[in-house]
Write a structure and sequence with these properties.
five-stranded mixed β-sheet; alpha/beta; 17 helices
C-alpha cells in the first residue's frame, strides 16, 4: 500500500475537507462493533507559523505512512498540528474540525447548530486556549456516534518541529491506537470483552512504535526496552525497576492505575514488556500479537481471541509474565538474544 496523505494548510481548507470518507468508499465491516478499512487518505491540518521548511509534516508522515502500510488504512483520520502564531488560523481549523463531525444524515439539529455545539463544548474551548497559549497537550481522540472518525491533536506542534525523532515516533504510536480502536467497541469498559485493557492499548503501541522506529533506523530497540526498566526512557520516571521495588500489588488488568498515577509504569512500560514476552518467550509471531488477533475481538471477545492466538488464557499469561518481569535486567534482556 502507498497511501497518499493530504495536507491542509490553513487558510486553504475548504477544498480538502470535501475528501471526508464518502460512503461509497467505506467497506462493509465484518461486525457492527468493528470499523472497516477505507480508501480515503488521512488529512493533516497544519496551522500557520508551522512547517516552514516542510520538515514537520515530512517527519510526521514518515511514521504515519509506515504505520498505515503495516496496519492498513482506517479512519477517516484527521491530524491537527497546531501552534499559537495565528489565532485566525487556529479558529479556522477548529471550525473545519467541527464540520468533519457533522452528522449529515441527521435532520435535526442543522449542520451549523452541530458546528456551534462542538465549538462551545468546554473541553474544546479549553483546548483552543491551550493552543493559543502554546501549551503542549492533545493526543488521540475518536467519535463514538456517527460520523465515526479518529483525530490526532497536537496543541503545540513546535515541539514536534524541534524533535523529528519524537515526531515520527508519536505518529507511529497514535496510529496503532487507530487500528486498535477500529476493532473494539469503545463505548464499553476497557475490562469488557469487546474492548481492550489499557496495557494492551498502550503497551502494544509502545512496543510497536519502538520496533518500527528501529526498522526506520532511528533507535536501537533493545536499548530502548532496557531503558524502560532502568530509567523509564521517553515515557517518564520512575522506570520499571524502581517501580517494582516499591509497588508489589500492581496488576496489568487493573484499570485503576490511571487514578493512582502509575499508569505510565504499568500500561506503557510493563505493557510493552508484556508484548515483548508474548513475542520472544511465548514465540507468537509479532504480526499476530500486534495486529491479527484484534480481528477476532468483535466476533468472539477479547479473552477468547487472546487464547486462540496466544495459546494461553489471559489469566495464565498474567501469572507467567509476573514471574518473568521480576527477574534481573540481564535475565529479562536474554529473551532478545
Amino acid at each position: 500500500m502507498n497511501t497518499v496523505i493530504s495536507i491542509a494548510i490553513t487558510l486553504f481548507l475548504v477544498g480538502c475537507i470535501g475528501k471526508s470518507a464518502p460512503q461509497s468508499q467505506v467497506k462493509t465491516p465484518a461486525s457492527p462493533n468493528m470499523q472497516a478499512s477505507i480508501t480515503v487518505e488521512p488529512i493533516l491540518f497544519v496551522a500557520e507559523g508551522l512547517n516552514a521548511d516542510g520538515s514537520l509534516v515530512k517527519n510526521y508522515q514518515r511514521g504515519l505512512q509506515y504505520a498505515i502500510d503495516y496496519f492498513g488504512n482506517y479512519g477517516p483520520y484527521y491530524v491537527y498540528l497546531l501552534g499559537p502564531e495565528s489565532e485566525q488560523s487556529v479558529r479556522g481549523i477548529y471550525r473545519q474540525r467541527a464540520m468533519t463531525r457533522v452528522n449529515k444524515s441527521s435532520r435535526f439539529p442543522a449542520a451549523e447548530e452541530q458546528v456551534k455545539e462542538f465549538l462551545n463544548r468546554p473541553n474544546v474551548v479549553n483546548e483552543i486556549k491551550s493552543v493559543l497559549a502554546g501549551t503542549a497537550e492533545g493526543g488521540l481522540t475518536w467519535t463514538q456516534n456517527p460520523p465515526i472518525l479518529f483525530e490526532d491533536v497536537t496543541t503545540n506542534a513546535k515541539g514536534r518541529e524541534k524533535d523529528p525523532v519524537e515526531n515520527t515516533w508519536g505518529a507511529l504510536h497514535e496510529y496503532h491506537h487507530v487500528f486498535q480502536m477500529a476493532h473494539c467497541d469503545t463505548r464499553q469498559e476497557r475490562a469488557s470483552e469487546k474492548n481492550i485493557n489499557s496495557w494492551i492499548a498502550e503497551g502494544m503501541a509502545t512496543y510497536s512504535s519502538a520496533k518500527f522506529m528501529e526498522k526506520l533506523g532511528l533507535i536501537d530497540f533493545k536499548d530502548y526496552m532496557l531503558n524502560l526498566r532502568k530509567s523509564g526512557a521517553n515515557i517518564g520516571r520512575p522506570g520499571i525497576n524502581e517501580f517494582l521495588a516499591t509497588n508489589q500489588d500492581w496488576r496489568l488488568d487493573d484499570e485503576g492505575h490511571w487514578d493512582l498515577g502509575t499508569s505510565a509504569q504499568v500500561y506503557y512500560m510493563l505493557g510493552a514488556w508484556a508484548t515483548a514476552y508474548l513475542v520472544n518467550v511465548q514465540k507468537i509471531d509479532e504480526r499476530v500479537v500486534l495486529k491479527n488477533w484484534y480481528y477476532d475481538i468483535p466476533r468472539v471477545g477479547k479473552s477468547a481471541a487472546f487464547k486462540k492466538h496466544m495459546g494461553l488464557s489471559l489469566a495464565e499469561f498474567y501469572q507467567k509474565f509476573d514471574t518473568f518481569i521480576r527477574q534481573t535486567n540481564d535475565e529479562v534482556m536474554a529473551i532478545f538474544r
